[in-house]
Amino acid sequence: MAAKNLEEALRDAGNVVELLRNQQTGPNVYPGVPAEYTNWREEVRAWQQTCVLFNQSYHMVDLAVEGPDAFAMLNHLGVNSFNGFTVDKAKQFVPCTPDGYVIGDVILFYLGENQFNLVGRAPVIEWVEYHAATGDWNVKVERDERTVARKDPSRRKSYRFQVQGPNAMKVIEKATGRTPPDLKFFNMTHMTIGGKQVRALRHGMAGQPGFELFGPWEDGEAVRQALIEAGREFGLRLVGGRAYSCNTLESGWIPSPLPAVYTGEALRPFREWLPADSYAAKASIGGSFVSDDIEDYYLTPWDLGYGPFVKFDHDFIGRAALEKMAAGPHRKKVTLALDDEDVARVWRGMLGKGDKPKFMDFPSAVYSMHPYDRVVHGGRTVGLSTWIGYSYNEGKMLTLAMIDAEHSESGAELSLVWGEENGGTRKPTVERHVQTELRAIVSPVPYAEVARKIYADGGWRAAQAEEQAA
């Protein structure tokens, strides 16, 4: 009999790690837009040199949460402090399991009194839906599924665009006919673009000033065309799926924490509530890090750089476990800059016959939904790499990694183990290959200098500081 829920699917599979390593699903996709509008190199360069228009209307799940208990329920589920969180603000929302491991992260928008919207990957959305359905909360939730999970994309409720880059404010000014408001990072306002009312979030996804714009789906094309027209004289480029996949390498956001929901009696009711075809059931993992224990793939808030978000000023799921973890030790999130010669050696290895290294694609080399590669020093594993790709702006192959504190200082020399254990023979979606090591230099997060400056001087870091002070 076919499994009816995640718990049954895991039981039938026997070994959770083997189930996820052998999934046929590749990396998360960026649907709804072409792979390239012009070419991905110029599209990548534009977010640092001119400006870009990201169309994010297709690949994320939206969840509306409304009702008298909406604030209280979300406060109970997130590690974040909600002190000072008011209408027309947003925050990165991070829920954890009772054992203190990350389920995922999404952006939480405070739209109006008792009205919230969460936008991001499915695991967090499902966690919130579960508590709304089973808890004693006076709330209602409505899910707006991402395009790849629906037959008719025009039935989505909202569009979502981002205008980012050095010229972004000029584009917004021309599109709206007025000077953009001087908002703090992750604060919201209203604008009129293309004759349509638009909600605007002050954002900086590419490490540059900009806005995230959203509104009713039926208004989306008018707003998009108005932005394109306004951006012509400012070098605006539309960004396709290939370029979009690597922007996180420069800004330093790790988009791939495996939801830590596969074990633990406390989570059994959640696994029984999740359907057998849920995100967690279909997720894939890959890379050179291999363990028979799925809990070795779980991540803490500190692994992902979210330690400053953890606030013990409220009661939330996972608080007791995180209080024990807080004193450390913690791994540190870093960028690894891979050695140019070693990267070239991998590419040269694709030429000719005989044994070959694992193929390293451009610009994103991610080949599973949740990549986990070993980072070693003297043959000993000292960290994990969880995202890998090429930054055309920096001219470097980069990875986002979490490293043991003693090896995490900038300039430290480590190695990345590239390729699957047993040469890919255990994973159907991976070609046969020979595992190899690539030298790497521990580098800052964000890697791009302009992103570090923007985030430090008035954006992400300032928002974190404000949250910590709350």
Give the gist of this structure.
The protein is an alpha+beta fold and 470 residues long. The chain is 26% helix and 24% strand.
Labels describing this entry:
470 residues; alpha+beta; Elongation Factor Tu (Ef-tu), domain 3; 6-stranded antiparallel beta barrel; disordered C terminus
Distance between the termini: 52 Å
Q: Residue ranges: pLDDT <50 for 5 or more in a row?
A: 455-470
Overall structural class, as computed from helix and strand content, comes to: alpha+beta
What gross morphology would you assign?
globular
The CATH architecture assignment of the domain at 284-457 turns out to be: Beta Barrel
Into which percent range does the helicity of residues fall? 25-40%
Report strand order across the widest sheet.
Answer: 8-9-10-7-1-11
Task: State the CATH superfamily name of the domain at 284-457.
Answer: Aminomethyltransferase beta-barrel domains
Counted by DSSP, the helix tally is 15
How many strands, which pairing sense, and closed or not: the largest β-sheet?
Answer: 6 strands, mixed
**What would the average pLDDT be, to the nearest integer?**
92
Rg, rounded, reads: 22 Å
Find the CATH topology of the domain at 284-457: Elongation Factor Tu (Ef-tu), domain 3
Question: If you had to describe this structure to a student in words, what would you say it looks like?
Answer:
There is one protein chain. With 470 residues, the chain is α+β, with helices and mostly antiparallel strands. Among the domains are: 40-53 and 158-244, 2-Layer Sandwich (Gyrase A, domain 2), CATH 3.30.1360.120; 284-457, Elongation Factor Tu (Ef-tu), domain 3, CATH 2.40.30.110. Helices cover 26% and strands 24% of the residues. It has helices at 6-13, 16-21, 40-49, 70-77, 122-134, 168-176, 220-231, 241-244, 247-251, 268-273, 279-282, 319-325, 340-348, 449-457, 460-469; strands spanning 51-55, 61-66, 89-93, 106-112, 115-120, 140-144, 158-164, 188-193, 196-203, 210-216, 236-238, 285-286, 332-338, 370-371, 373-377, 380-391, 396-403, 413-418, 436-443. The longest helix has 13 residues, at 122-134. The radius of gyration is 22 Å and the shape is globular.
